[in-house]
Amino acid sequence: MKLTAALILLIAITGCEKSSTKGMSKTDTTKTEFPAGQLSYLALGDSYTIGEAVAQSSCFPQQLSARLSGQGLKVAAPKIIAKTGWTTNELQAGIAAEALPAKYDIVTLLIGVNNQYRGNSVAVYRAEFKELLQTAVAFAGGNKKHVFVVSIPDWGATPFGKQSGRGTESIAKEIDAFNAVNKEETLAAGISYTDITPGSKNAATDGSLVASDGLHPSGNMYKNWVTLLAPSILKAYQ
């Protein structure tokens, strides 16, 4: 994406290897039983969720659905409510504008990078993120075990971030502040939290983790996210 587009989006900045699992430990010979039918999946977020600058099949919700299905938990193609550049309040408005079914079996939430990019208040982010958590739980039929939050990646490690003039250390500190909030609120609500931020920093030295726009994650990075996230979802259904 062009630089100006990236700036507007925010970073809107805002994924499947074949794997075999029978849900057994070394001493357990009982096969894990997963639901027989397809599970519905709602992915909420921003450009990181839609997979800006990568093929649709490479975005993390699509890769996650494929990975889970390959490991015995049959998941339908995700319903994605996300847009490049969305902040927390814009995501909430986007959700309200959609005529969505009342319940999904799996809900993921990744939001906040645009709040940080625009210099928005961390306190306001906390309030709006808590509302989004409640919205996600409602879509999961009130089952917190079926909601999964993903941390905000560090876009400062990307080529765009390095050239932004905002300082990679400064960006990292701000991202950490927003992630401290979403982690605290997620865990306090008894919801699963997956920290992909440390791995996102590898983009500083590994170009294969960055999309062609120099800002967003590549399919390879999204694959890494799925590797971290999938076990929590599989565990929730065991």
TrEMBL record:
It comes from the Bacteria. Residues 43-222 form the SGNH hydrolase-type esterase domain. PROSITE patterns: PROKAR_LIPOPROTEIN. Pfam families: Lipase_GDSL_2. CDD domains: SGNH_hydrolase_like_1. InterPro entries: SGNH_hydro, SGNH_hydro_sf. One of its GO terms (molecular function) is hydrolase activity, acting on ester bonds. This is Lysophospholipase L1. It comes from Pedobacter hartonius.
